[in-house]
Amino acid sequence: MLKILQIGFSIITVSLSAYGLITKDYQLNYLMVLFLGLFMLTLGIKEFQSERKFYGWLLVGVFLFSVFVSIQSFVLL
User: Fold this and answer.
1) What is the DSSP letter of 45?
2) What Cα–Cα distance (Å) separates residue 45 from each residue in 12, 25, 41, 68?
3) What is the DSSP-derived secondary structure letter of residue 24?
4) pLDDT value at position 76?
5) pLDDT tens-digit profile of 23-37?
6) Which of 9, 15, 49, 72 sits most deeply, having the most CB atoms within 10 A of its CB?
7) CA distances from residue 73 to 5, 24, 36 in whole angstroms, order as listed
8) 36 and 13 Cβ atoms separated by less than 8 Å
9) Number of domains in the chain
């Protein structure tokens, strides 16, 4: 299940970033950052499952920061 979520979140992230680069329209950057954060969360959960707690906490911290940035960007629009 985590593998499917990882692939889905990474495809969405790459698609949104490619769309922004090709069209020079950066209004969807907050969604890209949100999905990138969700991708980091799935990586963090996978690290917790493989008993690497430090990297798991680091990736969860990156997830929290990216969700915070995404919400701030959405509110400022």
Assistant:
1) H
2) 19, 33, 6, 19
3) -
4) 80
5) 998 889 999 999 999
6) 9
7) 24, 18, 14
8) yes
9) 1
Max Cα separation, the chain?
A: 42
Tokens linked to 23: 């069209």
3-class state of residue 63 by DSSP: helix
Cβ-in-10-Å burial (0-12, 13-18, 19+) of 36 comes to: buried
Structure tokens at 14: 């790459």
Q: Per the structure block, which two tokens stand in for 46?
A: 């996978």
Cβ atoms of residues 8 and 45 within 8 Å: no
pLDDT score for 73: 87
Per DSSP, the three-state class of 72 is: helix
Residue whose token pair is 């990882």: 6
